[in-house]
Predict the 3D structure of the following.
Amino acid sequence: MAVVEQMKPRIEMDGVQLRNVQRRFMVINQDRLKRVHAGLRDRHRLFLDLLPLLFHINHPMLPGYLSSKAPAGVSDYKPNKRTLDAARKLSKSFTYQQRSVRAHDVLALYMMGSSGTIAYSRKSDFDIWVCIRNDMDSEAREMLAQKAANIESWAASMSLEVHFFLMDDAAFRAGEMDSLSSESSGSAQHHLLLDEFYRTGLLIAGRYPVWWLVPPQYEMVYEEYVSQLLHKRFVNPKEVVDFGGLDKMPAGEFFGATLWQLYKAVSLRPTSRRSRYC
């Protein structure tokens, strides 16, 4: 039986359409952020308001502070009045000094999962992707991991469960993942995780996903399309993150994900008095 090869589509781009798609993404994202903010308790709103600032600067009066040498700086981020007011609620003497940064260590912050959807509830936890620059060395990553752990502890003191994941988009495209939380043990399902990111990822601060600019008919030539976007300067590489295309979903990942969910259900089940001594 002859195998019919699928022909690659001829790539065509429209700058006006690309800008419209980017604007629509940002408008929808902002609307989702507002819904999340409106549904939070006051102290949890404080966490969300402060989150990008905590990764943008190292300030001894703010939660998570580790060292002045810890990685900092969120790409294309400038704290607004609400964020600065939230910081002053924690420390009345807090002052923000804007400094020029040659290279931002954090490219973007994303909230994953049910946030901003009808599935969200006050019992939902926060899964946060901390997207880092690709050339960050191991020592800097360890410092950022510790800072994130400190922020997790601060959130826990407000009865808010938060899990941070350190994400390098280039490493992710290559099939490598580095996490900051034990909750990520099931994230070995690469394509399912990427699907969740594109479906639910809520941009808190920083760069948007270039994937949103790739029309569905070009998904099979994703890398070539993105390469042309950058080469023809339709997109500034300093404005986007690229976790790769999603033209297929391996069936094996569904099996692995099912096993992981079963494992979590068993391991997180409260231990009864009877089973403890069996």
Q: What stands out?
A: The first helix runs from residue 15 to 38.
